[in-house]
Amino acid sequence: MNISVVIPLFNEEQSLPELCEWIELVMLSNSFSYEIILIDDGSKDKSWEVIEHLAEKNKNIRGIKFRRNYGKSAALNEGFAITNGDVVITMDADLQDSPDEIPDLYKMIFSDGLDLVSGWKQKRYDPITKTIPTKLFNWATRKASGINNLHDFNCGLKAYKKEVVKNIEVYGEMHRYIPVIAKWAGFTKIAEKVVHHQERKYGKTKFGLERFINGFLDLLSITFVSKFGKRPMHFFGLWGTLCFFFGGIVSLILIIEKLYKSHFHIPTRDVTDKPLFYLALLAMIIGTQLFLAGFLGELISRASSDRNRYQIEKKL
Known about the structure:
Blueprint (H helix, E strand, L loop, with lengths): L2 E7 L6 H14 L4 E7 L6 H11 L3 E5 L6 H10 L5 E4 L11 H9 L5 E5 L7 H18 L12 E4 H4 L12 H7 L5 E5 L15 H19 L3 H32 L11 H29 L13
Parallel strand pairs: 1-2, 1-4, 2-3, 5-7
Antiparallel strand pairs: 4-6, 5-6
Helix pairs in contact: 5-8, 9-10
């Protein structure tokens, strides 16, 4: 099979028939073999009834229904698990992503040998309250991840080589960072394509401003887990040692100073009367706690079932 189209959705009953008809037209006009996987993320409207009706009319359409709303990451992860296509395309269900982009995205993966292609909505039909935080979010992600050639990490329209979606796990709200997850999994051939962004035709957006706060917190999490998930002592142990060493040196200097001045009968305050001593003591306590956190992290990491799970590209 050439293409799997994975579409997570929540309360999109109005847009689904038009979207599936549009995708089908693109696939048939390009002679692609395909499947459409619609993941209903606990919709409260008649989205699932619409999916059942569409699946009866078109055998290339499949559906998954969650009992409740788990989020876009969970929907994508479940969709990725059942894909059969050589190239996997993801898009949103609100008709703001154009299926006409599919042939070019497919070519960039299948013919050009890329691992992942992320869409870039260079011209957006969104309010300024959404576009400015989005630019800030993308700038921070580029700096943290080192993927400097992407302008829109959170664009729903993406294309993947099949091996990518079968070797990454998307959880929590990490769908924003799929390019970062793919890079840390060893898929480094990542590119970008300018795509057409359309105004929402039906319904209203399901995302609020809180997603930007959650997004930055998730960025910190994925950066830390990607770099130190299998070796937490390298992070906590390093900073713990530096804090303890700094506090110890300062305390030692204060004690030596006290002994020196006492020996030569130079008036001086007691060590315990100096605020710097308590700051040094606090640094030593924090250093000890960080070191213990790293030690406990190592114990947890070594007890994990996937402690020796690595991404293997080829075997002979």
